[in-house]
């Protein structure tokens, strides 16, 4: 997450420097032009205005600025978010809680992988070496774990403004650039929240900060937590990215747009 954040900041800074470079060159040319003794013809002035006006409009437009450092803007994303599709947060939560978790359980079971620690039955006999789960006893743990993953994604979507219309709007030839960028930003934030929550869970479990190499028991627990983090992030990324891209493709037609939807936003 830190590497992704650093790379994104460097890319934004390089793009920002490149975006403002033509304006600087035009400003220098205008200063040299003011000190020139010869005054160009009126037709030359019109041609110069015609060439510079689109460039000025291109770099003066706000565009999709999703990296504002204003504290009020950052807190407003969580306190008063803009949601253009009222059903999208609920759909995201269902895909994150139910679909992604179900696919992970099915995949691990089909490959005879060890059962995740969060999938233990709430009424299981801990004294038994091989747990025999009753029918339906694993539903509650799966839903509880999925609810935590859905909460992480919701926070990431709010931080990345993934519920704005431009986060799932490809109408008018906009393309999927902004859609994919918002998915990556939301996923990076959600992954950070999930990693932090896992660290808090380990701290509460052991009562202290544990490090690898202390004992075989702690090493096994840390390795289990790392593997489960990779599985959670991987399955959530595949399912939610697929769903979001499919949802964005629906805006190409008028039938897939929400009520009172403005395609020009």
Task: Give the helix/strand layout.
Layout: H1 2-34, H2 42-60, H3 71-79, H4 88-110, H5 139-159, H6 177-206, H7 216-250
How much helix, percentage-wise, in residues?
55-70%
Unreliable stretches, pLDDT < 50, 5 or more residues?
1-63
The proportion of residues in beta strands is under 5%
Please count the beta strands (DSSP E, at least 2 residues each).
0
Helix-strand sequence: HHHHHHH
The global form is globular
* Radius of gyration from the alpha-carbon trace, in angstroms: 26 Å
The N- to C-terminal Cα distance equals 30 Å
Please tell me the overall pLDDT. 75
Helical run tally:
7
Structural class by helix and strand composition = mainly alpha
The largest sheet, given as strand count, sense and whether it forms a barrel, is:
none
Walkthrough of the structure:
There is one protein chain. The protein is mainly alpha-helical. The chain has seven helices and no strands. Helix 1 (2-34) packs antiparallel against helix 2 (42-60) and helix 5 crosses helix 6 (177-206). The protein is globular.
């Amino acid at each position: 997450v830190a590497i992704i954040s650093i790379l994104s900041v460097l890319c934004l800074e390089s793009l920002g420097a490149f975006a403002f470079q033509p304006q600087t060159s035009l400003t220098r040319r205008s200063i040299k032009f003011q000190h020139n003794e010869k005054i160009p013809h009126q037709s030359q002035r019109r041609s110069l205005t015609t060439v510079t006006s689109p460039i000025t409009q291109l770099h003066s437009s706000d565009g999709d600025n999703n990296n504002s450092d204003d504290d009020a803007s950052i807190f407003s994303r969580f306190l008063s978010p803009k949601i253009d599709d009222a059903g999208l947060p609920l759909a995201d939560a269902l895909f994150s809680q139910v679909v992604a978790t179900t696919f992970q359980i099915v995949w691990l079971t089909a490959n005879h992988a060890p059962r995740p620690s969060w999938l233990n039955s709430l009424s299981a006999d801990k004294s038994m070496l091989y747990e025999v789960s009753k029918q339906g006893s694993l539903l509650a743990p799966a839903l509880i774990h999925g609810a935590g993953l859905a909460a992480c994604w919701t926070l990431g979507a709010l931080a990345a403004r993934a519920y704005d219309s431009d986060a799932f709007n490809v109408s008018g030839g906009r393309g999927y650039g902004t859609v994919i960028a918002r998915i990556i930003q939301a996923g990076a934030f959600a992954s950070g929240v999930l990693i932090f929550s896992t660290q808090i869970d380990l701290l509460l479990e052991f009562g202290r900060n544990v490090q690898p190499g202390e004992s075989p028991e702690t090493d096994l627990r840390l390795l289990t937590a790392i593997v489960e983090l990779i599985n959670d992030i991987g399955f959530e990324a595949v399912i939610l990215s697929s769903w979001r891209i499919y949802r964005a493709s629906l805006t190409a037609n008028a039938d897939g747009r929400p009520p009172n939807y403005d395609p020009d936003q």
